[in-house]
Amino acid sequence: xxxxxxxxxxxxxxxxxxxxxxxxxxxxxxxxxxxxxxxxxxxxxxxxxxxxxxxxxxxxxxxxxxxxxxxxxxxxxxxxxxxxxxxxxxxxxxxxxxxxxxxxxxxxxxxxxxxxxxxxxxxxxxxxxxxxxxxxxxxxxxxxxxxxxxxxxxxxxxxxxxxxxxxxxxxxxxxxxxxxxxxxxxxxxxxxxxxxxxxxxxxxxxxxxxxxxxxxxxxxxxxxxxxxxxxxxxxxxxxxxxxxxxxxxxxxxxxxxxxxxxxxxxxxxxxxxxxxxxxxxxxxxxxxxxxxxxxxxxxxxxxxxxxxxxxxxxxxxxxxxxxxxxxxxxxxxxxxxxxxxxxxxxxxxxxxxxxxxxxxxxxxxxxxxxxxxxxxxxxxxxxx
Amino acid sequence: xxxxxxxxxxxxxxxxxxxxxxxxxxxxxxxxxxxxxxxxxxxxxxxxxxxxxxxxxxxxxxxxxxxxxxxxxxxxxxxxxxxxxxxxxxxxxxxxxxxxxxxxxxxxxxxxxxxxxxxxxxxxxxxxxxxxxxxxxxxxxxxxxxxxxxxxxxxxxxxxxxxxxxxxxxxxxxxxxxxxxxxxxxxxxxxxxxxxxxxxxxxxxxxxxxxxxxxxxxxxxxxxxxxxxxxxxxxxxxxxxxxxxxxxxxxxxxxxxxxxxxxxxxxxxxxxxxxxxxx
Lengths: 384, 279
Fold this sequence. Notes:
The complex is a heterodimer. Helices cover about 45% and strands about 15% of the residues of chain A. Chain A is of the alpha/beta class. In chain A, the strands form 3 sheets. Chain A has a 9-stranded parallel β-sheet with strand order 3-2-1-13-10-9-8-5-4, covered by helices on one side. Chain A has a two-stranded antiparallel sheet with strand order 6-7. In chain A, strand 2 (about 45-50), helix 2 (about 65-75) and strand 3 form a beta-alpha-beta unit. Helix content of chain B is about 45%, strand content about 15%. In chain B, strands 1, 2, 3, 4, 5, 6 and 7 form a 7-stranded mixed β-sheet that branches. In chain B, helix 1 crosses helix 7 (about 155-190) and helix 2 (about 50-55) crosses helix 4 (about 90-100). Chain B starts with a strand and ends in a 5-residue tail after the last helix. The interface of A and B includes residues 192, 206 and 268 of A.
């Protein structure tokens, strides 16, 4: 398979506006497990969970806890995050926990770095939100090294120093999991993803298409600058938001009360206005297919398309229905259509096997580019 | 020269709109006298009220409002006029300035104005608008224009209002030209042009007065500044006609650069973010 399709959740606990009922934390946690299993059964390739530390969320404070449980309950769906908080979580703990998860799942995981959009979280973990970017940069640099070096001596601004430290367990077969960097509006993160040759993910849902396109273009061009490949070969992932019924008017009618009252976008622009400006698509399977296929026009050939489904207080029954509809009436067409006219030299979504083969071939990306890359040549030029 | 006019005219008969129109017209005339044209972007926040409110309620930026912010950032100078309600500028007007990015008015000469029932509320400009525009790093003029209902009602009031408008806009154009000129001098100082000029015949150059100064600079010790021989006198100035003078003293067209953060060429190289030189 060339492209991956997945379901992601941010683990919000939201009142159903049509009934006034709010799920309990227990119900929502169990529902998340159901959703993940259902996604696998429906033919999705990936399931990703967010990370949260406060109500009204039940996304795990440490995603590997949930993902390990899901790994035992599933057989082949890839498990990932949306996102792992690289700012307020200790990189040592990230290195340890996700490597452990890698062993438990035989490599069936990857993760996405995010800075988190909940301001108050930072001081709870001794951090300052104004250091957000600097934290993301330093912490990931450390994480990158923890997975690749033993007896590490390290010093930085945001964490106590490490001396002769080896994080345990080592990544499975010394092949660290694939990392995506997620950002809505910070060019520094697109640059970071390009620097390391990692993937870039844009959730695509709370932003204008034209801005998203520019972020992705920035990442692609810098990816080529750092010599990891051509711009069109970079690793791009996108989010999407849909609500589907056979008949598009039914979809709009059913979803409107959820939209109008949703904590994130309720009481603002109308559903129609929002759908025009963002990728939100509420309608028939054909409409969702058409809209999703259109992303390629500005994002290029990409590797991963994730859908947000369990949001705005939709009851579990509806979410499971949506997953089924997507799986049976949308995904097969998307797979076939995306495969058409996909450039032959664009890599597939990275699997663990692919990462292993890449390492064996000695083709792992060099952070910052090797001496033959445009970046390397610029460095040599500036050194003179 | 680019002017951005940001005002809030809530009704079709809005006196704030009338005042804004009058100020723009006066500015156009003043710039024309100095041989400059004014390119005006008109932003009536009445037409952006919905977008401004939505920006508070959803994380998605509104393209129409973004375009307005961009026009403000690209302007050389700014006027902003609000109606005063209950002793303070109408909320939607303040909200616009609260939502634009920090420092958006950096180095821009700004002229404030307001309208209200009586002159009682004229200080609302000073304690409400000025701090906000200063926060945005605007170069806010000491004078501003307040128009009360009376000022529109009779010819005496109207004449006085026009006098205030002329005074305040004069302040703005002077600041604008002084700043542009200082900028072009700074640019000049950064190049070898200054030294080159110093070595050529000064009287035919555009910046003859700079040349006179720099000639003293390059050839003699600072104490020569005091000597009258080095100072230009009326005899040494070549008399030219007004047309040529305006021609020679036209301000150089400065390329307006607003950084596009998503342009790969403007991105901060990652090595810099890491804080070390290369990996």
